[in-house]
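Q: My labmate handed me this sequence with no annotations at all. I'd like to see what the chain might look like in three dimensions before we decide whether it's worth expressing. Could you predict it?
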Amino acid sequence: MKTIILLVTGGAIALMGQAETRPLSAIRELGTIGLCAHPNSLPFASKAGDPPGFQVELGQALARELGVSLRLDWIITQYQMRSAGCDIVLDVIADREAQGETNLAISKPYYRTGVALAVPQASGLTSFKSLDTHTKVGVQVGSVAAMVIGQRQVPTSTFGFEADSLDALANHEIDAAAVTPTMAGYYNQSHPDKRLRVTALDDSEPTLSWNVAVGMVRPDQALRDAIDGAIGKLRGDGTVERIYARYGVALQAPK
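A: Here is what I predict for the chain of 255 residues:
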């Protein structure tokens, strides 16, 4: 179970450059809008399609609002985005600085996420502030959470993927796991016999929480406005929340 890193890290897409604009009129003329997603990254997306992942479902809902169909462009790394020719990516950090060199245009945010602590149900841990030198925390290698927790002299164990740290937590190998509420919620849904408690986002650590938006690869203003309008409608009628809830994810409103 792999988390596609481009969704929430805003890593550089140096090869994208100043790509030619694909206007809304061209998308409607073609009758499709392309979504770049990872083929094996549930709960985000899955090429197997059972389930398809919340990015695919939300992409389909956005396409319907625009009056077109959704084309899926499967990529393994963010550097493939340009050659894939997609129009949008989902679950990107809604912050221009965090996006670095991606050149993505960012929609209005549609939820808020970050890094929280997953802990056993009986754990007394309630936030990052409650960690100490006696609590061992699973962190994703190279992550901001690893740096923040390491600065507090808290013992850590590094993992390549969030799901691996959640497995280690469920197997009592660590005391807590620093993960996104998205992955923790999906883990609880997928492992009902090993359900974990997830602490609230810690707003006292500004680097560990962020708004999430649609990233647009080369939009004109009409496409930006159409995506903003579609996201607003889908949030307003509860569609966004229902899609994510099917994967065990409870969304927080953006700030």
